[in-house]
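Lecture 7, part B: from sequences to assemblies.

Below are the input chains for today's worked example.
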Amino acid sequence: VIIIIIITLAFLTEPNDVIAVRDRPLMLDCQVEGEGPISITWRRNGIPMATGDRAMVLSNGTLLIRNFSKRRESNETDAGEYDCAAQNRYGMLISRKARVQLASLPKFLSHPESVAVDEGGVARLTCQVNGIPEAKIAWQRDRRPLSTADPRYTLLPNGVLQITGVRRTDSGLFRCVASNIANTRYSHEAQLSVTGSRIYQEPVILSGPQNLTINVHQTAILECIATGNPRPIVSWSRLDGRSIGVEGIQVLGTGNLMISDATLQHSGVYVCSANRPGSRSRRTALGRLVVQAPPEFVQWPQSVSRPAGGSAVFSCTASGAPEPHLIWLKNGKLLTPTGNVKLTNGNT
Ligand SMILES: *[C@@H]1O[C@H](CO)[C@@H](O)[C@H](O)[C@H]1NC(C)=O
Ligand SMILES: *[C@@H]1O[C@H](CO)[C@@H](O)[C@H](O)[C@H]1NC(C)=O
Ligand SMILES: *[C@@H]1O[C@H](CO)[C@@H](O)[C@H](O)[C@H]1NC(C)=O
Ligand SMILES: *[C@@H]1O[C@H](CO)[C@@H](O)[C@H](O)[C@H]1NC(C)=O
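Predicted structure of the full complex, as structure tokens:
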């Protein structure tokens, strides 16, 4: 028995979201299968692209922009939302919209601030920068790279430096170095001064966890850094009382919680507690972690042929968190219910 499956028109590869580098070539893929001849065209921000020397469509459907530009005078850049359209005698399919961003590293949003810390105490320095792609942040002390071998130093990827059990030799001028494919930048310098030795001090949480939204399989870092004398003990729990578990869970430095390969079950409110050893004296801080799952199709519409006057049903379901919103397109245009077209069951 020979089963012939006729694919009228379908995408094999749709364009991905990418970060483009200025003055470099950029390629966006669009591969389709189906009955030929098939023509492929591209749009940027919904407007058909003029192809020529600057941008061209290769024979395999890929869009090539020879020299990705950011024109300085006007607002005009090659960044935007791109989609490809495939057309054959059955009709037209429009791909997903690929978001193309220009790599950049703007000025620091915040610089580290000078601090004075008691010997044996805790220092926290922070800097913030919004790079595309996200910048890697390293630290320098007195303009030399900070050694990360010392377990008293914890560098969090979001630009936080924690130093515990501070010693006089830790003092100096600190600055961050942010870098990505677009640029490298240095922050202002901040002074860490180490003052006299410590007296008794109740636990204080210097910085607790932020509310965080991530996608499944990503890594979440929930910060918690506490100071006090004697040194407080930091522990974590979930507000709903469920166990945090052990798989993929690590403590970074003295109290930060790292959750790798996050799943939907990791969503929840996390509580960091700083306890004075041997007592009930404690401080807490909360942060909500939301884990999202991008939409995935569970069921696709199938090609059908029907006599005129008959009816055709197309079904489509998708899973994701939060619940995906479905729309239908016909020949690339949004399908709105009319006399003989009905959308049922939440557009599924
Ligand atoms: C890309 O364009 C910029 C200015 O628009 C120009 O300076 C540069 O030489 C071009 N690069 C290439 C590889 O054509
Ligand atoms: C399309 O062709 C270009 C140039 O030959 C190649 O670099 C690119 O990888 C091809 N794309 C796909 C999806 O095969
Ligand atoms: C850039 O474009 C926006 C609208 O698209 C406009 O409001 C803004 O003034 C423009 N900026 C420059 C520097 O041309
Ligand atoms: C986190 O979100 C809760 C609401 O869910 C809000 O009350 C709280 O202020 C937020 N915390 C931070 C640090 O933004």
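Note for the exam: The chain has four domains: 9-102, 115-195, 201-293, 295-334. Keep this in mind when comparing with the next example.
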